[in-house]
Amino acid sequence: MEIMSISENAIKALDFFSENKPPKLDLDGFSLPFVVGSVNAFNTGKILFSDKAAVFADESNFKTVIKSYSPIIEKGLIKKAIVISASGEKDSVWEVELAKEYGLETTLLTCNADSSAARIADKVVVYRKIAEPYSYNMSTYLGMMLSVTREDPKKIKGVIENLEFPKNFSEYESFAFVLPDRFVNVCPMIETKEHELFGGHVSIRAFSQGHARHAKFIVRSEKDLVITINGENEYFGHPDHRWNISVPEDLSFGAMMAISYYICGRIQEARPPYFTESIDNYCKDYGPKAYGKDTPFETIVPGN
After folding, report:
1. Domain spanning 24-126 has what CATH number?
2. Can you identify the CATH homologous superfamily of domain 152-277?
3. Judging by beta carbons within 10 Å of its beta carbon (0-12, 13-18, 19+), is residue 131 exposed, middle or buried?
4. What is the pLDDT of residues 225-254, one digit of tens each?
């Protein structure tokens, strides 16, 4: 089975959204909602509501968080919950159910209109996506971001096409991204790609500029490339191994995600096929078993 790299996936997603604009998501109707999601769905929620008051939770703490806020819910100060899930399955199903048990109006953001969570949520916003390998979630969450930021996918692609990679890029053993502070919630999304694509084989870290100042680069190495987007890096990493990238100021979260994922894909292409050799077995065996299910995941998740 041929598995495209996530850099290829990024370009295909940008091309798709250049021709198929996501629906505009109006957040003004949500006043102090719960925003719930798993892993990068959680991070996407923090991005979508980065300038809004909201209570964030994930699959590990939602039960505790919603219980602790029950007095506020009872007073009518919190009335809604947004659950974000590309698939609309797995943890999102019980998250919607739990929110409804507390009397909250539930809205599901998903790419699967026929999902289990979509069938029980009060409202559903459905996003289009392209076919992509399990766990990449490039087009899924990019579409959600673009529905709020309204960035131009063609402009983002132009930035990617003009990236000037260091000549010895493939020789680095570790990589660190440093992003402007307002994009701090993109950082865990980048690190999630390290987990999914490389396991323990390659180190990829990501920090906001503010976090980077807090002793993240005490140890400098010529094998570590520090990639700074929209900032002059004078202090982080070995002076001879820094790569500064300029992105137009009118681009936002979608650009930061797409550009960083594209770079992760170039790292992927320069390494042995760790992901390609593992993903099919994961989807058929130990991935679904961790959820107590025997039905395999789809190695290539279809578009819609």
Report:
1. 3.40.50.10490
2. Glucose-6-phosphate isomerase like protein; domain 1 (3.40.50.10490)
3. middle
4. 999 999 999 999 999 999 999 999 999 999
